[in-house]
Design a protein that fits this description.
By secondary structure, this protein is α+β, with helices and mostly antiparallel strands. The chain contains 8 helices and 11 strands.
Length: 266
């Protein structure tokens, strides 16, 4: 079945994909120069394996880095990103409430309602920060508290609660819960390190699929849009854990991106 009907050359979606490819190229160069391991993740990796590029209807990108490399990555990105790209986390954009950073294109608009108060609103690539977890069951339990509390502290309430009184109440409760939640998180991290867990995940996300270090390292290179980028050592095992039968195309009514307005500026 033809799939390029979704992103023919010259279409808005294809122009957006090429802008995101520019983001990946810039980040790939920085990571290679700094010796920071990264790998394509989620739909980006799936696109590399199944389509040798973007999933035709996809409108975002994902890579992973280890959480221990976050500070080094942040410092390098702030210093080395080209001027048409911006590094976005809660230190550069006070209303960025996610715990993972994004690299944003500054010459576009990706009009998501949840980002309407944010400083940077262009096309983006998520940089997913993963670390050892004791088990996915433990990770999911901690997420119920840590993920939600951290979002409220970093201004998620601006878009979640129209009432200022409710926003203040929820944010106050989040600050009260922060110390016990951080203790729980510390204990989980210590235990994961003690048992040398093979499972990587992120405590701030409810995504239930594990990422296994034994499937990832040493990373290899895979073709994506005619260029080579880093990917897990065993992409089949990695994608099967995330998506199951990933080579079968989804039904037509399930093909689509974020369904939001995209604008490209020259």
């Amino acid at each position: 079945m033809e799939t390029n009907i979704y992103n023919p050359e010259g279409s808005m979606l294809r122009k957006a994909q090429l802008r995101m490819l520019h983001i990946l190229e810039a980040v790939d160069q920085i990571c290679r120069e700094e010796g920071i391991p990264y790998w394509m993740d989620a739909g980006t990796l799936l696109g590399a394996v199944r389509h040798q590029g973007f999933i035709p209807w996809d409108d975002d990108m994902d890579i992973c880095i280890l959480k221990k490399d976050y500070r080094r990555f942040r410092k390098a990105a702030l210093a080395k990103l080209p001027p048409d790209l911006a590094y976005q986390d809660w230190t550069t954009d006070k209303n960025h409430f996610e715990m993972s950073p994004r690299i944003r294109d500054t010459r576009s608009l990706f009009d998501q309602p949840e980002s309407r108060y944010q400083k940077y609103r262009g096309l983006f690539m998520d940089v997913i920060l993963v670390e050892r977890v004791p088990s996915m069951r433990v990770k999911q339990f901690i997420y119920l508290f840590y993920g939600r509390v951290s979002r409220e502290i970093h201004n998620h309430g601006l878009v979640a609660y129209p009432s200022k009184a409710k926003r203040l109440a929820v944010k106050g409760a989040a600050y009260l819960l922060w110390p016990p939640v951080m203790l729980m998180l510390l204990l989980a991290r210590l235990y994961a390190a003690l048992i040398h867990s093979d499972i990587l995940s992120r405590y701030y996300s409810g995504w239930p699929a594990p990422r296994c270090m034994s499937d990832i390292f040493p990373c290899q290179e895979l073709e994506f849009e005619g260029r080579m980028f880093y990917a897990p050592a065993d992409p089949d095992a990695y994608l099967t854990k995330q998506f199951g039968d990933y080579m079968t195309l989804p039904p037509e009514n399930e093909r689509g991106g974020h369904n939001c307005l995209i604008e490209i500026y020259e």
